[in-house]
Each structure stands twice: as structure tokens, then as C-alpha cells.
Amino acid sequence: MNTLISKIELNNKILVHLISGDVLSLPYSYTKRIEQSNISQLLNYHLIGGGRGVHFDDIDEDISLEGIIDYKLKHELVLSRCA
Question: CA Rg, the chain, in Å?
């Protein structure tokens, strides 16, 4: 994978900023641990694998860019079929 995560931002969704300039959005329901966490817990994160993923220290949760892209593809395909 040629693109990597540069940072995340927490708004009404989790915004995953890529070094390419693209931004992917995820719902807080992406994982149960994230959904059950508060913003201050989620702000305590660091990038792992050279930007291939994110580790949330306070909740001991890892998410990968590969998993995020897979999630987005599956959910966007489902939405486009319903439209």
C-alpha cells in the first residue's frame, strides 16, 4: 500500500487523514471499544507501522488502514446498491 495515515481528527466521525491528502471518515461504531470510549481516550493515540495503522493507548485498540479501506468499500457498495 503506497499511502499512509498522517493523523486522525475527531468530529462527528473519525476522520483519517492520509499523506496523499485524502480523508476517510469512520463512524464511532467502527469497533465496540471505540464506540464505548470518550473523546479524551481516543485523543491518546499514536500511529503504528509507519502510518499503516493507529493505536489508541487508553483503550488498547488498533485499527489498520487496510481494514478501514475494506470497511469503506463494503459499506459504500451496500449504500450504492440501496440507492
Answer: 13
Residues 21-56: tens digit of each pLDDT: 999 999 999 999 999 999 999 999 999 999 999 999
Q: How many domains does the chain have?
A: 1
How many residues are given for the chain? 83
Instruction: Pick the closest to residue 36 from 9, 8, 56 (CA basis).
Output: 56
Say whether pLDDT at 81 is over 70. Answer: no
Predicted pLDDT of residue 75: 83
Q: Could you tell me the CATH number of the domain that includes residue 50?
A: 3.30.2020.40
Q: Which residues contact 46 (CB under 8 A, 6 or more apart)?
A: 54, 55, 57
- Supply the range of the domain harboring residue 46: 5-82
